[in-house]
Amino acid sequence: MTNTTESTRTAGTGARVATVIWPTLTYRNARAAIRFLVDVFGFVETAVYGEGDVVEHAQLDWPGGGGLMLGSVREESALRDLPPGVGSIYIVTDDVDELYRRAVAGGAQIVREPRDEDYGGRDFVCRDPEGVFWSFGSYAGE
To answer: Distance of alpha carbon 10 from its chain centroid, rounded?
Structure first.
């Protein structure tokens, strides 16, 4: 039987690697999205590749681990059929209310105010300027 709660897996080389999920999004204005995600939500800009208004690839790290990859809508992109502004991402944070205040101050569209959930934890839901849904909560799963 496989232990699905294990936080590391064996890579093809036999080395142990952390299991991390990296959502990937496309944006009409990827540079503005990066600024919003860094300045308002607190992502860390780790890498941005591209010239002018075009972002071929960007990596934004989440301070608690994992992160997000994003880029501009481009015909040659493997994600060219993924409409911009589509997605829903849940991120675990230790200070839901502070992040909510930052989201409001930064102009995020609040979809659901902070609330305590029956299953544990506290969360809220908002949308970024291009329409991606972002849920931030203290519930880290079972």
So the answer is: 25
Alpha carbons 83 and 105: distance in angstroms, whole number: 27
State residue 41 phi and psi, 5-degree precision: -90, -25
pLDDT (0 to 100) of residue 138: 96
Phi, psi of 80 (to 5 degrees): -60, -25
**What average pLDDT does this structure show over 98-103?**
97
Q: What is the pTM of this model?
A: 0.84
- Domains of the chain, earliest start first: 20-137 (3.10.180.10)
Question: Which pairs from 15-18 meet CB under 8 Å and 24+ separation?
Answer: none
Q: CA neighbours within 13 Å on the CB side: how many for 120?
A: 6
pLDDT classification of 60: cutoffs 50, 70, 90: very high
